């Protein structure tokens, strides 16, 4: 058993307080590491937006969108004779925006058809002939325009930038 405490010691003990814990750590102000992470995330979002905007400004993107519009018009029989001509004009515009515009711009007929077939991913002989003659001759009813437009998509992806 402990001896009773003197009144002086009891008075001193009454002055003591419980141990106070520090306040909990809050989120604000943020630590420098969090600020760096926020800045990096913002720069990443801005870079992604810039890349997306630049991609939408490319000739390839615009040509593929226009080609998708032509493919959507395939089901309309009344508009079908003009599709081959519109496809030929689209491909000519793609060529004229490229670096070989001076060499390829004046080509027509068989020369233009051979240029369309020239490289890997080029058109088949019948599709190239159809595109080369489309602005000058009426569309033939037996031609498979869907297959020609699929070939045009591959050609645009390889040719346009």
How would you describe this structure to a colleague?
- The chain has 161 residues and is an all-alpha fold.
- The protein is built from eight helices and no strands.
- The protein has helices spanning 7-15, 32-56, 59-72, 80-96, 101-104, 109-117, 125-133, 145-159.
- Helix 3 runs antiparallel to helix 8.
- The mean pLDDT is 87.
* Envelope shape: rod-shaped
Mean pLDDT: 87
What is the percentage of strand-forming residues?
under 5%
Helix content: 55-70%
Cα Rg: 37 Å
Unreliable residue stretches: none
Tally the helices: what do you get? 8
Structural class: mainly alpha
Number of strands: 0
Element order, helices and strands?
HHHHHHHH
Largest sheet properties: none
State the end-to-end distance: 94 Å
Layout of secondary structure:
Elements: H1 7-15, H2 32-56, H3 59-72, H4 80-96, H5 101-104, H6 109-117, H7 125-133, H8 145-159
Helix pairs in contact: 3-4, 3-8, 4-8, 6-7
Give a summary of the structure in a few sentences:
This protein is mostly helical and 161 residues long. It has eight helices and no strands.
């Amino acid at each position: 058993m402990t001896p009773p405490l003197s009144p002086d010691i009891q008075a001193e003990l009454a002055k003591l307080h419980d141990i106070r814990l520090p306040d909990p750590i809050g989120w604000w102000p943020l630590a420098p590491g969090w600020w760096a992470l926020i800045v990096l995330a913002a720069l990443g979002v801005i870079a992604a937006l810039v890349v997306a905007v630049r991609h939408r400004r490319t000739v390839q993107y615009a040509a593929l969108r226009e080609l998708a519009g032509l493919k959507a018009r395939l089901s309309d029989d009344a508009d079908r004779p003009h599709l081959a001509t519109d496809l030929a004009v689209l491909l000519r515009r793609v060529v004229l925006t490229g670096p070989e515009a001076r060499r390829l711009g004046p080509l027509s007929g068989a020369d233009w058809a051979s240029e369309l077939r020239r490289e890997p991913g080029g058109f088949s002989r019948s599709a190239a002939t159809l595109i080369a003659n489309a602005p000058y001759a009426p569309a033939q009813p037996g031609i498979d325009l869907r297959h020609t437009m699929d070939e045009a998509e591959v050609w645009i992806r390889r040719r346009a930038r």
